[in-house]
Amino acid sequence: MIKLGDFEISRVEEIVLDQETSLLTHWNEDILRQNQNWMVPNFYNTDRKVFLSVIQTWVLKTPEKTIIIDTSGGNDKDRPLSARFHMLSLPFLERLKAVGVEPEEVDMVILTHLHVDHVGWNTKLENGKWVPTFPNAEYIVSATELEARDPKRGAASRPPAAWNTYLDSVQPIVDAGKMRIIEGNQTLMPGIKLVPIPGHAPGQMGVLVESGGKQAFFIADVMHNPVQIYYPDWNSKYCENQDLARETRANVLKYAAEHGTLLFPGHFGYPHCGYARRSGDGYVFEPSRISP
Questions:
Q1: Which pTM was predicted?
Q2: Paired strand residues for 125
Q3: SS (H, E, C) 65-123
């Protein structure tokens, strides 16, 4: 757990996956040799020659609210196009309880974007029906992102198998009247602001938290691996708008370095968060000394 002024930040891990190095198209053995001393073993596995990708959920507690940021892959989900997330059966809710959170106690779920590995625990299967996992929570999503994933709107041209994530993990929240659709650039409550960080996904938004003179920035998939701090022009193959993703990453790194902001990306290995520090004309990664 990390204390940030009046806020507490915890982490719930769902699964650690091998990520093929094709994730970053510019990766090569020379880059590995130059960075191996800090990338191994937490961010790169030399035996299997893969990046490590942590699927995780962040828990943010304010004095009044319990907030979840993204909900990982989920159990029992039919994912024909994403084998790594197909029909999982993992003790995620038990791990959530281990950090002191019962599903009924969650007040808000912030969905940075609606990719398969960020929305799965929005719902759970109950008597053959998908129901909200966090029954008393308000789910927050950007209007741009919701439109892009809706099979009746932005996703209409995609194959039906691609609609599953929306149909089992997003539509039930809309149907239950628990989805709050926003622009993604407003203050949610004192100390918590939503910031547009598009590129990886059209409506992706970050969560900027400030308390006690300190800042934390939950940046979702602006970066998948900390090597991108050293090579900020590198996109992942999953970035939907490659040029905009680079622009967003540059802006996030510049802001974080100037303000000493602790970054919480979606998928970094241990210690899962850290700082982007200026080094000459670029940046270096400084892992957090305290990990959730």
A1: 0.95
A2: 130
A3: CEEEECCCCCCCCCCCCCHHHCCCCCCHHHHHHHCCCCHHHCCEEECCCCCHHHHHHHE
